[in-house]
Amino acid sequence: MTKVIIPYKYQIELDDSLPLYKELQEKHSVQFLKYHMTTSEHFIKYINDEQINCIWITEDFFTYLGGPTPYWDQFPKSLRAIVVPWVGCDFIDGKRLREEKDILLCNVGPNAASNVSDLCLYLVLSCFRMTSFSEYCFKFIDTCDIDACKDHIGSTSKDIVTHSLTDPQGKTFHYKYPTKKQRHDEPINIVQNYNFGGKHIVSPTNKNALILGFGSIGQMIGKKLKAAFNMEIHYYKRSGSVPKEVLGYDAISIESLDDPSAWEDIDIIILSLPSNPESDNIINEKTLSMCKNGVRIVNVGRGSCINEDDLLTALDSGKVNSCGLDVYKNEDTKVNERLLSRWDVTALPHMGSAEYDIVLLETQITLENIEDIFINNGMGIYTVN
Length: 385
Fold this sequence. Notes:
The chain has two domains: 2-109 and 356-374, NAD(P)-binding Rossmann-like Domain (Rossmann fold); 112-136 and 173-347, 3-Layer(aba) Sandwich (Rossmann fold). The chain is 32% helix and 18% strand. The protein contains 13 helices and 16 strands. The radius of gyration is 24 Å and the shape is globular. The two termini are 25 Å apart.
């Protein structure tokens, strides 16, 4: 009998109607134990009393009990696998997990690439067209007034004002944005000043993109940018270049990020990197100084890859025109509010692969990892350690 614990507090993120779920239960005596979390002490007692064989990672597990790492020394000897129904596994030292405890760590492999890359395209488009600010204006500042929203075009960096929103609990959020131009009898020619607050509004078509992190997600992002916007794709991959016959499109491999020529002609930098010492703060004052003025940045990898203070300074100076973020530093405590309060930042709440189709697929793949390990005596379909 195999025991799989699925920790939850208020929500369960799996489809237990899938045929494989029922087959593992009924044919192979796999017990899926939906465990309602209370305290850390109770969790430790439960996994040891039940001699749990597998931990199915959930969002609630991180939110309410801190994820698996704090319980490293209390893992039962029966624990053989930790299965993750998404891609990122940097919350635990997988190599050490395997070497010291002989525990397999599995994720969903390349199967979330399409969903994350979809969202990346939205962020790219918003960075170039400044759509998130236009939407905010239309909803909250110049509500329902199309002409008034257009009056923000042509504003400069000196025209910044603050719009305040107060929630029912009395907390006030301050949103900084460029105010409208004043209408006069003398016409204003906005063609040479087509921007919001000095930040240019242009098309992403035929621009140069640099993708940092060129695994399955980065490669899919490149494919979609090429198809949608005819971008010239540059990429950096530590393990070397990827053949065109594998990619299916032309792309330029960058050998060294220390070379200024890797950065100087790039219109948008896209990060799809994991969190590790090599990628931490890879976007910083030094690397930004090698970029052209008005570069744009999108991050769908890990928040640790950007020095947020340096990014904010670059947004203020105009070195960075705009950015689109789905990940941040300190997500488990409090995201930097200075990023959220800007009109030139499109900010999403880490939802790269959060949609119905991928949740079904992630459940299926996680079940296949469990089947391979505990029924077929394998090492998991997508083992990362």
